[in-house]
Design a protein that fits this description.
Bound molecules: nicotinamide-adenine-dinucleotide
Strand content: 15-25%
Order of helices and strands: EHEEHEHHEHEEHEEEHEEHEEHHE
Number of helices: 10
Largest sheet: 8 strands, parallel
Helix content: 25-40%
Length: 337
């Protein structure tokens, strides 16, 4: 049993990981400022602190009070389009505040950290599938900020003996029961399509249908959020030695935008009106992971990432979105004054 601090544990991926850790008997402590997350998504057994990762006093308190062994760092600003028009908050949260947190961890002797990085660190790939050695040339400030923090972590591993795993997620998707994607605003394809299926949006816009792909629309690698959570659990078992390792989390199989639209239509039984628009700047034709390193070194195998299962679980979560009883029994924590 480990005592894990989960930053951003009220968000989409962080909440599913927190639940998975709790199910496996670990003690979970969540810090989240609820800027994008939902209090009811935090597992009832977890201790919860509403606060910012840049709040060093809070961090020091939480790490000391709970005897934290390792940190799973999900908290971030993560909307790519926003990072293009307004990069400052991305560098502030994803680099400056994250660095402040890291310094508290160093001072407290907590040296195990799993970091949610992203495929956006690769930018526009020159070859596919993408392995971890591919060039890192982010095409937006979000990717820049994530790569900057990866590099800080690599330095901390070599100089201060930190044990760090950086997971570069491709398209996180699907739901785990009552825990799923609920971003506001939403920018991800599957929840947007489910909005259309539910009648909450009139149509779905396809940005570009003249890419060099079989049906002309972009290809992306979708990985179920539960498979992401399980990679984190596997990482935890391998964090006894200092060092920095980066792993892609993707399946190695990609689907086109039109294939995703068709699957959503099939699963929901609803017609999805489509509107075709021009390409968006910086959207690569194909983004597909080579997950070989994760499979070989951590023994990871995606068990939930078939597109149909992803859409079915996301649809079932979408239909359940209602005031939740998950708050009941939750452990509320406050900082000692
Ligand atoms: N969802 C994806 O497809 C995807 C892909 C690649 C990487 N990632 C990375 O995975 C992580 C989780 O993504 P997500 O989709 O769950 O995002 P999310 O927005 O649902 O979750 C992020 C959580 O962090 C919290 N947060 C943000 N800034 C904070 C701060 N300064 N202090 C405390 N809490 C703060 C938010 O309230 C939210 O609950 C992020 O780091 C993101 O960059 C996600």
């Amino acid at each position: 049993m480990a005592r894990i601090l989960v930053t951003g544990g009220a968000g989409y991926v962080g909440s599913v990981c927190s639940a998975e850790l709790a199910t496996r008997g670990h003690r979970v402590v969540v810090i989240d400022n609820l800027s994008a997350g939902h209090r009811h998504a935090v597992p009832p057994s977890a201790a919860f602190y509403e606060g910012d990762i840049g709040d060093t006093e809070l961090l020091r308190h939480v790490v000391g009070a709970h005897g934290i062994d390792a940190v799973f760092h999900f908290a971030a600003k993560a909307l790519i389009p926003e990072s293009v028009t307004d990069p400052a908050p991305f560098f502030r949260v994803n680099v400056v505040s994250a660095f402040a947190m890291l310094e508290v961890l160093r001072a407290c002797g907590v040296k195990k950290l799993v970091f949610s990085s992203t495929a956006a660190v690769y930018g526009i790939p020159t070859a596919t599938p993408i392995d971890e050695e591919a060039a890192k040339l982010p095409a937006n400030s979000y990717g820049d900020s994530k790569l900057a923090f990866e590099r800080i972590l690599a330095s901390y591993a070599s100089a201060y003996g930190f044990s760090v795993v950086a997971f570069r997620y491709f398209n996180a998707s699907g739901a785990a029961g009552s825990l799923g994607e609920d971003h506001r605003p939403e920018t991800h394809i599957i929840p947007l399509l489910l909005d259309v299926a539910s009648g909450d949006r009139p149509e779905f816009t396809i940005y570009g249908d003249d890419y060099p792909t079989p049906d002309g629309t972009c290809l992306r690698d979708y990985v179920h959020v539960l498979d992401i959570a399980r990679a984190h659990v596997l990482a935890l078992d391998r964090m006894d030695c200092p060092g920095f390792s980066a792993y892609n989390i993707g399946t190695g199989k990609s689907y086109s935008v039109l294939e995703v639209c068709a699957t959503v239509s099939e699963v929901t039984g609803r017609h999805i009106p489509l509107r075709r628009s021009g390409r968006r700047l910086g959207d690569p034709a194909v983004l597909c992971a080579d997950p070989g390193k994760l499979v070989r070194q951590l023994g990871w195998a995606p068990q939930n990432s078939g597109l149909r299962n992803i859409v079915e679980t996301a649809w079932s979560h979408r239909r359940s979105l209602a005031p939740s009883a998950a708050m009941e029994g939750a452990v509320e924590c406050e900082v000692d004054a």
